[in-house]
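Handout, tutorial session.
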Amino acid sequence: MINDQASSLRRKMEQINNSKKHAKTISVVSGKGGVGKSNFTLNFALKLSEQKKSVLIIDLDIGMGNIDILLGLQAKYSIVQMYENSLSIQDIIEEGPNSISYIAAGSGLSKIFTMNEAMLNYFLDEFSTITSDFDYIFFDMGAGASDDSLSFILATDECIVVTTPEPTAMMDAYAMIKHIHQKNPNLPFYLLINRASSIEEGKRVIQKLQKVSEHFLAKSITALGVLPYDKKVAKAVIAQVPFTLYDPQALASRTIAQLVNQYLTNTINIDKKAPSSFISKLKRLSQFN
């Protein structure tokens, strides 16, 4: 069932892509919850927008979505209401800061939501009307891989796997990569290590996952980079403001800006350090006075 639905989705996405200019589609996944996947997606999208890229985030963590919460906004409609009320996809697209667009998943749903073939076709018909409006479309998936989410993941152009250095998170991330790879061996993977205590720790995690993936799956994974732990991120979440807007000079903000620049220029280098701000340089120098 999953393979049939995913194959159908891929075929239709390819038809859409071949018909006109289309956005690059990127699924963002994690093996477990709580690794900062949605927060990364949102702030990565905001930095892409600063680079004059038009970006849409589709929150597909149905019933548990939090993109609008992280933005401190209340979406008028969710993707579930698109089906329930026969709305167009344009009706449910909301505008966020930096001119990014997003579609809310809805939170606190009282019933389990599953997408049947008719719903999938409806989504694709609507989706085809907006693919030329954006440069990048991110699918922020729920943790793990349900039948519904796997179909979307397998159909995207790229997949970003977000994990932390925590051993259970690493194991779940590898399990996710393996599961997706078995269904679509040609899907390119990027790996993002979040909340690392240091760049060196993040690099060690990347190297471990790359080595295991190459040995057991014969699959190469591109290191997107390492986001170091930054207490400003937690403060931004509480304030319901994306951390790149809450404090543009915070370490996490400067690092994600660097990752976006490297991603756009295809010069990914996990050894490159984030540029220091004037304030952080001054604080460091003052320690020697």
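The second record follows below. Compare its token runs with those of the first.
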Amino acid sequence: MKRFTGMGVSRRGLLLGGSAALASAGLAPRMGLAAEPIKTAGLYTVPVEQQWVSRIHIAAEAAQAAGQLDYTFTENIANTDYPRVMREYAESGVKLMIGEIFGVEQEAREVAAEYPDVAFLMGSSFLQDEALPNLAVFDNYIQDASYLSGIIAGAMTETGNIGMVGGFPIPEVNRLMHAFMAGVREMTPDATFQVSFIGSWFDPPKAKETAFAMIDNGADLLYAERFGVSDAAQEKDILAIGNVIDTQPDYPDTVVASALWHFEPTLQAAIERVNAGDFKADNYGVYSFMKHGGCSLAPLGTFEGKIPQAALDLVAERTAAIMDGSYTVEINDEEPKSS
């Protein structure tokens, strides 16, 4: 099992901290009363420290602690090896498989078709296929929280020049960037954005170098969609906004706010369906919406009292409106461009 160091976030700190935050937020799964733990496997192409995958892993470990799952996982799976690992888990008696198949869509779906008695809950850029009834899809529709983090960023930037470093320009990333940009413009209508994608889900050094170039080009605040960006911000003494997880404890003077993804509602919906015997092809993306508890704005922590009141008021107003359905954050999956 690989342990990654040197990015300011340790595996133990991230995962234990995530579990503690989960419990305090009331998102820990309830103990099942009668159902046997579901034999479950997590299949990840990156280390479990990586932001996106860490949220799945934390939710699965919490469900295991609650007696709902018998969970194991494999990380750092190459796309070319993904189908083999899927088959090995299926042959071992796994009943629920969770993971991300963005880079291996066709091959993964072919494997799922070979094991109709296994429930597959997979991160995917595509919708569910009714012809493949045992594979449901999800992704992190956390545009609500991303928009709110943008409001804070728009209030904290002094130059209106914001750098944004992403992994790949796929819908799951694009929609969050667009929502963040929309939030920024609420407070700074004439803001400009430097947008770049590093072509990797986990390359902190490359993300850091890309961020340095943006700072050299005038950015005074960074959107850290990837690990490594906040390290650059910290070294250059500028601010950053986090994504998916809360890294402020590691960057207390740098990370102002973060849009958090909570995978628990997605996983709990799948567990319920597997236990009921009616798991089917479906789009679980809706469970990432704020109104379902799938995302939230991280506590301000060290930046409490440092955010302009006008921004806090708008965040509170928009949060209430998002929850009651009177305000909808636009979902824009197109690739964002520098402006």
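Points raised in discussion: Residues 1-33 have pLDDT under 50 and may be disordered.
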